[in-house]
Amino acid sequence: MRFRLHPAVVFVVIFVVIFLLHAPLLSLPYFWDEAGYYVPAARDLLLTGSLIPHTTVSNAHPPLLLAWIALWWKFAGYAPVVAHSAMIVVAAVSLLGVFRLADRVANTEVAIAATACTAVYPVFFSQSSLAQVDLAAAGLIFWGLRAYFDQRWVSLAIWFSLAALAKETAIIAPLALAGWEAVRRIPRVKPLIQRWSAGAELGREAQWGVAALLIPIVPLALWYGYHYSRTGCVFGNPEFFRYNVAATLNPLRFVLALGLRLWQSFGYQHLWVLTGAMALAMTDPPLRDDGVERSRIAIPVQTVFLVVITAYVISMALLGGAVLARYLLPVVPLVIILAVSTLRRRMRYWKVVVAFVVVTLVAAWFWNPPYGFSPEDNLAYRDFVVLHQDAERFLEARYPMAKVLTAWPASDELTRPWLGYTTRPLQVVRIEDFSLEQVLSAADFRSHFDVALVFSTKYEPNHSRLEDWGAWVQLKRRFFGYERDLPSAAAAQVLDGRIVFSEERRGQRVAVIEMEPAQVFNASNASGSRQLRISRRE
Asked: How far is CA 256 from CA 246, 269, 298, 316, 327, in A?
């Protein structure tokens, strides 16, 4: 029997649950790309009304989410807890979109289970309170897909246009659907598709379907035109474009990135438990209730999901210098919906299996995988923030006038008190990372700094055969900008200093190295920053 839950009730439940789960995280200072781009850009919009940031180099990301955060700051005050609470609202709307989509293509039972799995999927969970754009774009895509299956073309155009204005890569979804709509209407192809899908149709034919799917190109093009008129660059600053587009178009890199993208779509952060259970369930026949076979998601709908998943996986393997899992947030919930529907159709105790999957996904919040990964993909990002808070408070208290050698993002954390780490700016000398090459280079300029703040720029497990495999390390260096950080003790030895502060948390570390007794400097110069080499950021 099919039952209905009012969307407003579902939204309230979702919001309350995820707000309570994220409550201990909301007041944390800004993390990584939050601090490096999104928060400075939103703050510039708040203070100056400019859609083009000026305290950070523009990456040409559309301004919809930045405007949302700035609006919250305007009415509730500038603070990390306000920005992160604003993102909780975005996450709740996104999860409601998952629920509504799953309810439309399957049923309410599948919708509840799929929404729960999506909410606790570690990448989605960590992004739910971080001031970054990928989750917002994904949520708007879910709403656009719901409108697509209902063939509400005006709503579809609005949702996908908003998604593209949240993040430019969201345009992949409507373009993929437009391509599919065009292909399935080709006279010679249409009979084959109907035969393959047992004659099922997605819905009535609509001549404006493809046109509606192409409309989101217009606002995105207008944004890029505006950006070009103000900056002289269409797709962000030249370094950003080179790192995320020009430098990624290599056949071998594409193959490697494609493998990583497939893993992130179907197995990453314990998602393999769900997809593995789905594969196992496929070996069993469908269950019957009162002699009637349990329903499945219609083949044309599954095909649409596959089209979007394929388009995103291939596009994200081609583009993006950093192969970040959050770029695939529009894909993973679709995989989850398909998997949960399959479990319900073929496993009698599917609810027990889903409950087990939820437990394993929650465990992945705290358990770091035995290979390198981005700390923003689970609660390892909190460890990173807390480590930097402790070290930078120590620096501010003990060396308030010293020049600090460090790398990004700590260089921004020390010079921008409004990021939440210090109460006043410190002087910084910046290097790109803590590789042997960079630390040796810094050692030649010891007279330019008094202390060094060194930290793990990436998570590296203590014992990982993959990370010790020389060929893989070389490939990562060649195609993904990988450099291994020197241990804190080794960095201190190279810099001819001594460690005066050190802290570790679950595979991440930070240390303060004193070169010589700190001297008193002119306080009026404290906000200065010297840079040895510009670090790369999103």
From this structure: 17, 19, 33, 12, 16
CATH number of the domain where residue 469 is located: 3.40.50
The predicted-structure confidence for 204-239, as pLDDT tens digits, reads as follows: 455 678 889 999 999 999 999 999 999 888 887 777
Rounded Cα gap, residues 33 and 38, in angstroms: 7
Tokens of 538: 């999103």
Task: Look up residue 522 and give its DSSP letter.
Answer: -
Q: What are the pLDDT digits (tens) for 262-274?
A: 999 999 999 999 9
Residues 278 and 416 in one domain: no
446 and 481 share one domain:
yes
Domain end marker among 324, 339, 367? 367
Beta bridge partners of 359: none
Domain count for the chain, please give it: 2
Reduced 3-state DSSP string for 213-225? HHCCHHHHHHHHH
Q: Tell me, yes or no, whether 245 and 343 share the same domain.
A: yes
Cα 447 to the center of its chain, rounded Å: 39
Q: At what angle do helices 64-76 and 80-105 cross, to 10 degrees?
A: 130
The alpha helices in 399-469, defined as continuous H runs, are 410-415, 436-443
Q: What's phi and psi for 232, nearest 5 deg? A: 80, 0
* Count of CA atoms in the C-beta half-sphere (13 A) of 362: 10
pTM: 0.91
Amino acid at 96: L
Two tokens at 395? 């620096």
Q: Which pLDDT value is given to residue 234?
A: 82
Range of the domain at 451: 380-531
Q: What is the pLDDT of residue 51?
A: 94
Same domain, 393 and 318: no
Instruction: Tell me the residue type at 9.
Output: V
Residues 333 and 395 in one domain: no
CA distance 99 to 296: 17
Both 387 and 328 in one domain: the answer is: no
What's the rounded Cα separation, in Å, for the pair 414 and 531? 14
Pair 120, 362: CB distance under 8 Å: yes
User: How far apart (Å, rounded) are the C-alpha atoms in residues 355 and 424?
Assistant: 47
- The reply to whether 279 and 418 lie within a common domain is no
Whole-angstrom distance, CA of residue 490 vs CA of residue 496: 10
**Cis previous bond, 409, omega within 30:** yes
